[in-house]
What does this fold into?
Amino acid sequence: MTRCAAERRVFFIEEPIFGDVISPRLHTEHADGVDVVTPHLPHGIDDATITSAQRRLLDELMARERITDFVAWYYTPMPLAFTGHLRPLATVYDCMDELSAFHGAPAALKMREAELMTRADLMLTGGQTLYEAKRNQHRNIHPFPSSVDVAHFGRARRIAVDPPDQAKIPRPRLGFFGVIDERMDLDLIDGVAAQRPDWQIVLVGPVVKIDPATLPSRANVHYLGTKKYDELPQYVAGWDVALLPFARNEATRFISPTKTPEYMAAGKPVVSTSIRDVVRPYGQQGLVRIADTVDAFVAACAAAMEENASERVTQADAFLRQTSWDGTWLRISRLMDAVIGRDDAPPHEGVIAV
It folds into this structure.
């Protein structure tokens, strides 16, 4: 969306925040060229009121900002409840995951997705495996595996000072950043920590939708909480191995972890479980070690710490030169303009992302 915002106005509609507000209102924050719009709604209102309030707030925003020619860009089908009345130039469904496979997914999600796929002029998938699962469900669908901001994560190669909360942790350090949820193989993490108490496992990110009491609790497992995107290179810089310890379940069947090329750009060896979009292409090309059992994962991490770092980084950099978010956006933009029927979209054209 930040790349899109260089050419168009972008309004990114966040999920609502419920609090002690008398009446519904919008809070808008400008970040990296994108207008991030967050509805603030009163506590205790029912679903129908939530939907009607979001619709009214969105209509007011579009009138105030004079948004007429626009693209509706969906990351999830659920906002159709309050955006279905809009008449965009084009509708894009950017399907990043099989959301219906997640624990606690709304019962209406599959129905909403079917409706969205009927409406969508262009559908994108966040990985090859997801594309293969859905390619017969839409007439204009294209895979876009995770890309990377090489310059941003490449900073990790030049950082020599740890953040304060990581500096006190001994080495070697095996690290992960991202959401800690049902997709994580907690038994694997616990097993590695138990087998190698001299290794420190650093987990950076929020704990979401799982009971914190189920998390591994060992002296060598460290939870550092949520960090800003800008801070991530500082943490990765101090790791000896970067981890992708994902469980193999319905929630991970179609994931294509963006952090794979981000770890590589940071110059770190990567060890992952056999997530299909990591095995292809990273595992097949020898860019990432793949292991699923505790013993195999420990062996892979040990090998990663002993390998020739120069050879690995040279190979990783050759791969990363083939991908960038700028290139990804250029390809998507051309597909979107083809749907709209314009070679050059006018500067005033906007995008409403939900």
Summary: The radius of gyration is 22 Å. The chain has 13 helices and 15 strands.
